[in-house]
């Protein structure tokens, strides 16, 4: 027998209703509080007087033209021109001074020659005193060949020493006087390895050191840079090419960005691909930066490791070269097979096609001669990375300035 508990159920309902009422009252209180706060924020507060507000210092800048680069460039060009004028004046002064010194020297030599031509007074014969060097270089100390004398030993006369005898070592003076005479030991002149006149080695022109331009704005020779090909290259015809730098081009000391990534290089492709070659040779003539600076480049394109030329896909044109000749050869074989079949089936009374076979063979030879020399064609697609080797020093100091 179950007993129904009505009291507990009533209490539970009362508890639930009380909790719901409390929650509703709390939620209503929160809404009222928020509304009051927002209303107060709208009604309270003072107006801001914007007449006394100061501008931001970073925005308060006078809008003037920034021509410091232009002024620096003009000053640099003026200084260079003044330096060139000064050097030109110094060169003209030096040449004028040398010309004047030459005229004075010629005038002095003429005066000395005139004075030497005046004969000494009678009875005053001044004896010529020879130095030991002049006595050693006299004609009596040397043997002159018959070829040098012209008429043999019978017409040989002793050479009188003069004051104009050159001061040369005896060995070299003997070679000069001997002319085309035989070498030492009676050898022929063709054996030059035994002649003292061959003791002088190869003469090289001297070189002079010079100061390189400022490395801060210099792109030195043999600098490597990379660019992505912008135009397609087909080596059938020469044409212009274009590429974009993939990396910045820095100066020699690495402190200045001469050309940013994306700057343009222009060049030419004029060399046709030869038999067996697998690369295309390109020349790059000019570089142009995004700021409008242009410079003559005249450099070559290379592969990733610096070898001249860029690897390309090569079309050998095998079908065009040999297709006609092979087709005519098949026709010749077909005619020969038909001739053999006809002769076997008809006995001795069969038809022959010798003339047709000979004509086909001649046509095949002519076709092969006309197509065998078709040149290969190289293809380079846009986006191919090319290494450009700078072949000369390029000075950008006249157009660049670091701030």
From TrEMBL:
Keywords per UniProt: Membrane, Transmembrane, Transmembrane helix
Region Disordered: what ranges? Answer: 64-129, 149-199
A single Gene Ontology CC annotation of this entry is:
membrane
Q: What is its main location?
A: membrane
Annotated Basic and acidic residues bias: 67-106
Entries under Pfam families matching the protein: TrbI (PF03743)
- Quote the Gene3D superfamilies the UniProt record gives: Type IV secretion system, VirB10/TraB/TrbI
Q: Where in the cell is it found?
A: Membrane
Membrane-crossing residues? 15-38
Q: Where is the composition biased (Low complexity)?
A: 155-166
Membrane association type: Single-pass membrane protein
Q: Which domain of life is it from?
A: Bacteria
Family statement: Belongs to the TrbI/VirB10 family.
- For this entry, the protein name equals VirB10 protein
What does the organism's lineage look like at the top?
Bacteria, Pseudomonadati, Pseudomonadota, Gammaproteobacteria, Pseudomonadales
């Amino acid at each position: 027998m179950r007993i129904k508990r009505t009291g507990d159920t009533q209490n539970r309902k009362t508890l639930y209703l009380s909790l719901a009422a409390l929650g509703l009252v709390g939620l209503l209180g929160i809404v009222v509080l928020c509304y009051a706060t927002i209303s107060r924020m709208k009604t309270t507060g003072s107006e801001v007087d914007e007449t006394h507000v100061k501008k931001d210092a970073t925005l308060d800048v006078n809008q003037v033209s920034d021509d410091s680069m232009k002024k620096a460039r003009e000053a640099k060009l003026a200084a260079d021109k003044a330096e060139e004028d000064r050097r030109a004046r110094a060169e003209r002064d030096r040449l004028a001074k040398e010309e004047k010194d030459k005229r004075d020297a010629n005038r002095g030599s003429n005066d000395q020659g005139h004075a030497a031509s005046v004969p000494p007074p009678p009875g005053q014969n001044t004896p010529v005193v020879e130095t030991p060097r002049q006595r050693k270089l006299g004609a009596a100390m040397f043997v002159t060949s018959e070829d040098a004398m012209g008429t043999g030993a019978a017409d040989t006369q002793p050479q009188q020493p003069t004051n104009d005898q050159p001061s040369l070592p005896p060995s070299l003076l003997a070679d000069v006087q001997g002319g085309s005479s035989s070498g030492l030991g009676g050898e022929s002149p063709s054996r030059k390895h035994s002649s003292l006149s061959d003791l002088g080695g190869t003469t090289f022109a001297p070189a002079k050191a010079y100061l390189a331009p400022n490395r801060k704005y210099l792109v030195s020779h043999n600098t490597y840079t990379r660019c992505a090909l912008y135009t397609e290259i087909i080596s059938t015809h020469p044409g212009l090419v274009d590429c974009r730098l993939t990396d910045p081009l820095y100066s020699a000391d690495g402190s200045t960005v001469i050309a940013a990534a994306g700057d343009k290089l222009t060049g030419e492709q004029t060399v046709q691909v030869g038999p067996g070659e697998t690369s295309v040779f390109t020349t790059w003539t000019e570089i142009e930066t995004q700021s409008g600076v242009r410079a003559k480049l005249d450099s070559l394109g290379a592969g990733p490791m610096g070898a001249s030329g860029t690897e390309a896909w090569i079309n050998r044109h095998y079908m065009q070269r040999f297709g006609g000749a092979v087709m005519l050869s098949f026709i010749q074989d077909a005619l020969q097979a038909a001739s053999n079949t006809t002769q076997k089936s008809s006995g001795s009374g069969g038809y022959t096609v010798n003339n047709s076979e000979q004509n086909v063979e001649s046509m095949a030879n002519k076709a092969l001669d006309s197509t065998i020399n078709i040149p290969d064609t190289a293809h380079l697609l846009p986006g191919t990375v090319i290494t450009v080797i700078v072949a000369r020093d390029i000075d950008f100091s006249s157009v660049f300035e670091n701030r």
